[in-house]
Amino acid sequence: MKKLRIAVWHNLPAGGGKRQLYYHIRGLVERGHYVEAWCPDTADREFLPLSDIVKENVILFKPSGDMRNFNSKDYGVVRELLNAIEKNCRVCADQINSGDFDVLFANSCLLFRTNPMAKYVNIPSMLYLNEPYRQFYEAMPELPWIAPKTFRAGRFSLQGLLYYIKRLHTLDGIALQAREELEFARSFDLILVNSVFSRESVLRAFNLESKVCYLGIDTDHYRPSGEMKEKYVIGIGYIYHGKGIDRAIRALATIRMEKRPPLMWIGNSASQHDLQTYIDLAVSLNVDFVPKIHISDSEVISLLSRASAMIYAPRLEPFGFAPLEANACGTAVVAIAEGGIKETMVDGVNGFLTNDDDPEMLGRLICKFIDDPMFAQQMGLEAREHVLKHWDMEFCTDNIESHLIRLATEDSTRIKRLIAKKSLLEEIEPTDDIKMNIEECKHAGQELFLKGWAYIDDGNSAFDSEIFVVLKNALTVTVIKADKIVREDVTAHFGGKVNYDDSGFVARIINKPAGVPKVGILIHRREKISLQFRG
């Protein structure tokens, strides 16, 4: 089997996404592939540090805009953050392009979920997308673009007018971020997701196809501690509205007081506002809610092993490591059947599923484990066997490895492999079948900006064409994929019988070759590759 040189990019916080990436990289390295990682300094590098297993290149990311993960940001803040992440990714891509890598394995971005890396690398590119920016497409608790309840009543007052203007800036920010995230996603050769549910989410948000690449659990790390079961229920996840902690508290509140178990909640961190809300809710319902934040892995495994059951009630969670981690520690799960949990849990085998968030039903299922410790122990053992059989690390590595090998070798990415290995460009003779016009050519130090249009003049539409700018001098060749712009005027100029709307391009080269290089245009359209240098 071919051993790959894999370039990884991520901007992940601590949590399930980073754990997923760590497992993927570790498995690929163990199978002999060379992996090297890039990330902005905003990524979490202490939680499961990649630097323990591969070389990790950290590139500074210094926007002055507010990077906190609000549901929405003003247009100006979004624009600044987009400019900063684009600049960061160009620096990463320059290093990757010079490294003779076979494939880019990009992961999510804590700011934008998708990222622009595929625009700048000259190798086949794959994005592992945990989820779109859910706050734009799901009510959490409300969609950020819908009008507030008081919108109609106060819009004609001075205060209402000022609020309306401010809101327009926010809506513009949402529109810009959503558009750029879509364009970033479109630029990848392949999108992978962690569940069928996530595939549907990507299709719903972006109208883009993706492939399911299921994850796995490290069952050597997550295993029963050997301690006895105790009468408490466990939950895991960042403490905020999306994790459904309110649902869990209300479910426990339905259990009779004399046998009502405490709710232990493990979190990497917490929204302080939401944490206080849940503490207040638990007090009002006489539920013993015990948050455990920033605890050690050994304590996590002990708590998972000793729990009577896990309650899992997040809102539309895409996959969810937590239930499988609990199962691997010998603890069954009571869950609401929504999101990715429907693909990892078999009702009656590794836990129980309810069709909705009915607190009474959730409470009754929890009582099965509280009332019968032997039952909790037995189903916990069956749950671990289920994970060992269906969700182990070999399964996880098989999935990601097969996609990477296929992408790195398939014919549809031949153009990127040719560009990645610059010497192979000599295989492409100039074809003299390109019509082009470079309308702007601006130099600023080592930067070069080009704008114009180009298409293959063979009577076929420019639809689905990729345009690359080629700069060549005696020593080096620089190739960069141009951004497409719609040029209806080109279609009209040449009679309108053939659609050349996709012929427009802009390109910014950060480090142009020394001297005055030859400028060429390379176009890839379906199976056709054409190259022409400007006379």
Description:
This protein has about 525 residues and is of the alpha/beta class. The chain has three domains: about 5-215 and about 395-410, 3-Layer(aba) Sandwich (Rossmann fold), CATH 3.40.50; about 235-390, 3-Layer(aba) Sandwich (Rossmann fold), CATH 3.40.50.2000; about 425-535, Immunoglobulin-like. It has 16 helices and 21 strands. It has helices at about 15-30, 75-95, 135, 150-155, 160-185, 195-205, 245-255, 270-285, 295-305, 320-330, 340-345, 360-370, 375-390, 395-410, 415-420, 490-495; strands spanning about 5-10, 35-40, 55-60, 105-110, 125-130, 190-195, 210, 235, 265, 290-295, 310, 335, 350-355, 435-445, 445-455, 465-470, 475-480, 485, 505-510, 520-525, 530-535. The chain has a seven-stranded parallel beta sheet with strand order 3-2-1-4-5-6-7. The chain has a six-stranded parallel beta sheet with strand order 10-9-8-11-12-13, with helices on both faces. Strand 20 (about 520-525) and strand 21 form a beta hairpin. Helix 7 crosses helix 12 and helix 12 (about 360-370) packs across helix 13. The longest helix is centred in the first third of the chain and has 29 residues, at about 160-185. The protein is globular and about 85 Å long. The model has no long low-confidence stretch (mean pLDDT about 90).
